[in-house]
Design brief:
Number of helices: 4
Oligomer: single chain
Order of helices and strands: HEHEHEEH
Distance between the termini: 24 Å
CATH superfamily: Glutaredoxin
Mean pLDDT: 91
Strand order of the largest sheet: 1-2
CATH architecture: 3-Layer(aba) Sandwich
Amino acid sequence: MPHVNELKDAYQDHLNVIAVHMPLSKQDMNIEEITRIAHAHHMTQPIFIDNDSYLSTQFRTRFVPTYYVFDRNGELRHYQTDGKMSTIINRINRILDK
């Protein structure tokens, strides 16, 4: 999460970050625990809690973490299943034409 927070801060005027929590068990659905962990990691972005696996099914997400980058028109422009932030930053810069 620190890398995502840095990315969010660096692009705060150009990027919206939304986290998606994909529970693996009933215990992972505890809102109070999710909130506690989000605060511990200084997450200020919205968190979609995908208890019914709706979003993960729609995007066929199989690995965590997975990153999705959309352009301003809502078009999916990039996704990756590793945390290599340099690749994500390069893609964001291309989309933003920086």
